Amino acid sequence: MKKLLLFFVALIVYHSFSSAQNKQSQMPIYKNAKASIENRVKDLLSRMTIQEKAGQLNQLAGLIATGPAANDPGEKAKMTELREGKVGSFLNVIGAKETKAVQKIAVEESRLGIPVLFGFDVIHGFKTIFPIPLAEACSWDLHQAETNAAIAAKEAAAAGIHWTFAPMCDITNDPRWGRIMEGVGEDPYYGGLLSAARVKGFQGNLNDAEHILACVKHYAVYGAVEAGREYNEVDVSRVMLWNKYLPTYKAAVEAGAATVMNSFNVFEGVPTSANKYLVTDILKKKWGFKGFLVSDWNSFGEMITHGYATDKKDVAMKAINAGSMMDMQTEAMVKYIPELVKEGKVSMQTVDDAVGKILYYKFKLGLFDDPYKFCNEEREAKVTFTKANREEALKAAHSSIVLLKNANNTLPVSNNTKIALVGYYANSPEDLFDFWVGKGTSNDAVTLYDGFKNKFGNSLIAYTKGYNADGSTNDNLINEAVNATANADVVFVNVGLTGKLAGEDRSVANPVIADGEVQLLKALQKTGKPIVALVTAGRPLVLTQINNLVSSIVYCWILGTETGNAVADVVTGLYNPSGKTVVSFPYAVGQIPVYYNHFNTGRPTATDDAGNWFSRYRDIPNDPLYPFGFGLSYTTYQYSNLTLSSSSIKKTDKLQVNVTVANTGKVDGEEVVQLYIRDIAASIIRPVKELKAFKKIALKAGESKELNFILTGKDLSFYDADGNSKLEAGNFKIFVGGNSKDVLEKDFNVQ
Ligand code: GLC
Known about the structure:
Elements: H1 2-26, H2 37-47, H3 50-56, E1 58-61, H4 75-83, E2 89-91, H5 96-109, E3 117-120, H6 133-137, H7 142-157, E4 163-164, H8 188-203, E5 215-219, H9 238-254, E6 259-262, E7 266-267, E8 270-271, H10 276-286, E9 292-294, H11 302-306, H12 312-322, E10 327-328, H13 333-342, H14 348-364, H15 377-383, H16 387-400, E11 402-406, E12 419-422, H17 448-456, E13 460-464, H18 475-484, E14 490-496, H19 515-525, E15 531-536, H20 544-547, E16 552-557, H21 563-571, E17 637-644, E18 648-649, E19 655-663, E20 669-679, E21 690-699, E22 704-711, E23 718-719, E24 725-726, E25 730-737, E26 743-750
Helix pairs in contact: 2-14, 3-13, 3-14, 7-8, 7-16, 8-9, 12-13, 16-21, 17-21, 18-19
Bound molecules: alpha-D-glucopyranose.
Alpha-D-glucopyranose (GLC) binds next to loops.
């Protein structure tokens, strides 16, 4: 009996095992979680019609328009296209519940059940909003930047988002451009490190439901739009392309970014969406990029407007044959790829290569095995806008603030100093945030007024707005402000530009402090009280008109959810400011573009009264008001003993650079020690300074440290017009200091 029982058990086990085997063998490979991604992609491609393949190249917008949506087909039509396998991705569909509903249609109602990718602009936070990327860059804290991105990814992933259109890696020198807020500042070396950190923060290892695909944008050179005007054209040489603009995209790609976004502009007369030199020769062949590209919003369709393509069929052909892939909002690929393949104008190999890369990341994210992996409402509620996330946002905001001026050590003040706060924006949540704040709402953010109330309590003896939403003022507002400050020891005035003018399609011809705000400051200066300017803006404004009206200038940028608490902590010394600007502050609008890594010209002048025949303006100084890398602390630092391991090295040698930095003040602080080089003479001219290393160090009051930097041949190299890296013998300079102007220097040469 026992044997019989065992026999039957064995039979059942064998049967279930073999049926599982059979089932597995009958299951299409692409549905088999045990098969390699490569094999799953290959199998799926072999099952897809050309129309379904073209559908994977089609990305449509959901609820929010982040571009001109005149011909939007509407929700119903999009869902029909989804059922027909004609949509591979949506942007701006947000929420665990919302994305699940759309994913269900893709997976359960289309022929092959291919899941869609949900993309969204998670630029500096999802619900918990961090400082704008330009402000975050001023922290010089790569670990903090990575942490910020990781928190943003975790909140976004919990809301069903698989992919962010960030980091924006565009180098720019133009504060007129509204998108300067979104990038990395003016330096290619640091901008590259920052972009890589942001990619790592967003993506992690892409093996959980807390990280999302990153997107390197806007490829390429979009930050060079002429005159800082949005969507304007770009015209830069290949030498500038390789040495100034490409390094940040390259660093982000090398950090493993899954996707790259075409930019709106042209390069050498060809829109980047169809620019084979940029997309195939450089990105894919030279850099070995293995991910996929997505266009910017209708940037494929705009090739017609640029005057490069004749119609949408021409657009689809030129874009995909140049190496571009997914089509945001033009619907050219989904409509014309089948026809173009049939006519032999686009090869099936080209289509399979593009579609295969998109499918790869859908498998990599695990969406074929669990399409609803990111659609978890319970997790969404649990991980979003938490106390811990807001604490991290506060930390990030602290280190993003840049102290530009602090005459007579006006700051810090104590918590019970009697203060007055003036400024419309200080108490206006709707002016607090910029355009790119995802699902963040300024009503749940801490305004300057909130933060000062929290910090000073009754010592905040008065608040008046001083000017109107547009920066204008009048005698009543000024008199009200002056009277309200009568009993204050220190007056804090929030001036700047509303956050509504920070972001895309927000170029301004006059990035200055509004006349009304200047008038207000002039009236307050007459009271004789110390005035502290708290400047909020998504760009470096021209501060010349207020520089001598105030004792201190605290540049607050746009700091996100914890704005008011962070600024209050800084002005009371709870946090000793350590930020260093990553963009030069122009002395005048006419000086734009002004940047530290400029060329020498044939007639440079270091002074402003040099006589005739020099490269300068006659009506303003030659330098910016505040230079790249500049930022004050409540303590002081002294640099000494700059020494080099050798004054002459071979190309294969390393150069060791030592410097001593002392905290010569009375409070502990953090200093960003910067190392620049100059290649004195080369086969193409080189900038007067190039940042090549930095260290952010903590120094207690009275403490000093000897720092050691190692430079290699790579640090001393540059690119020629063909993108070849060159290290040439010749004389060099090393500069080390706390900003790009006040530096110690040493000479050395490369044999
Ligand atoms: C916008 C922006 C781009 C953004 C995309 C989707 O036009 O240029 O940065 O990611 O459209 O919103």
